[in-house]
Amino acid sequence: MDKQLDTLFFGLLMILLLSNCSPEKKQDTSGIRNEMKGRELVRVSDADLMAKGNELGLEIVKASQGTLQQALLGAIESEGLVGAVEYCNANAYDIVKTLEDSLDVKIKRVSQKPRNPLDEPDSVEGMILEAYAYDFSPTNAVNQILELDEKTLIFTQPIAIANGLCLNCHGTSGEQVKDEVLTVIKSKYPDDKALGYSLGELRGMWSVKIPKKTVVKSLTE
Hints:
By secondary structure, the protein is of the alpha+beta class.
């Protein structure tokens, strides 16, 4: 009798073991495997990270500059230079902020001679600006992509006084910059330093701080 019970117990045990190894049970684990695969870390080389960061920086500056220029030209056409100064004062930062929020980056136009104190460079931006200013000419104005810290890249691109239109607000007082324009500039920007420029001179630079996670996401999409 004991032998029969042992045989029965062994048979039941084998049935349970075999049922746990059935194809249906294996199929149940496929969802887990897929989930684990989705959680795998994405490994990106430093070279790929910097190259993609540079590409994103170029695209962001192009979009930002294009949007601001279009808005400025529209304001000049409808309101004249005086109205354009007032428009820039009221809207330029909101335009850039909208781009920042949509792209998950930090965008600035910084200068050693800023019109708005908010455009003062930070310590890192100041060093990059000094490097650009050394023996600057529009023909050697190249962008850079650098690692700012362990979580962030910084893309920079110099801004030159490209044409006579720029001198209407950034040239010599009483000459290119007319008195009525200068009056509005002084009223809107009491601490203005952005006058006295010449054609082709370095005006400042674009600074785009891009989270590395944003770059990695762009690489893996």
